[in-house]
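During the reporting period the student researcher (J.K.) took over the structure-prediction task from the postdoctoral fellow and processed the backlog of single-chain submissions. One of the processed entries is reproduced below for the supervisory committee.
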Amino acid sequence: MISPLAIIEDGAVIGENVEIAPHCFISGETTIGDGTTIAHGACIYGKTTIGKNNRIFSHAVLGSIPQDLKFSGEDVELVIGDNNTIREFTLFNPGTEGGGAITKVGNNNLFMGYVHLGHDVIIGNNCILANCATLAGHVEMGNNAVIGGMTPIHQFVKIGDFAMVGGASALSQDVPPYCMAEGNRATLRGLNLTGLRRHAERKDINALKSAYKELFELGRPLQDVATELLESTDNSYVKNLCEFISNTKRGIPFERKNI
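J.K. obtained the following structure tokens:
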């Protein structure tokens, strides 16, 4: 299951039923969980922990030092959960001292070819990042989010649960949960109704539609509306949306209407 042509440094911890193809490199600080497969030419550097049943394809590079000029050899790490698919020529960097020293990936995610995760990125579960999506340092994604191909995400941006960012967009502000954003620069285009219909009940979708209209289509101050909705609603989806808006640091990218 482990090719004699793979280079595995002393100290690496490798679980059961792990496959490592020829010409891979595995650092001595790496931990690889049961059932993970690593295709030929993939390289895993530094303090990298990989969970169970991940599929890592050819020439993926995981754990190489951050692309941050301030990095000077601190103790940093990359942690990847279970059941992720990491396709060809992906690049995942570990954290930096200034960002918590960890880059963390959850479970059941799909990272298509040439995806880049910068330092201190946090990814939830069940996300899809299409080909050439690039996340700068400190980006945070929730669960069930989708990033289209050829889309760069600015550093420190946050993307909420069930959000979707269209392909060939350029995102520099936060995308709230359940919303879609698209364009260069990306702006909100509505709710991610397709994703919601797969996971939410009709009453929750209707509540989100009503909240979205109040927040983004009536021309009132966004933070004021979010505060009012938080005080008046008992719907967990609407609360999640409004709490995200209340806590945004980079702002929400939407076209303000004068009514």
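The committee noted the following: The first strand starts at residue 7 and ends at 8.
J.K. will present the remaining backlog at the next meeting.
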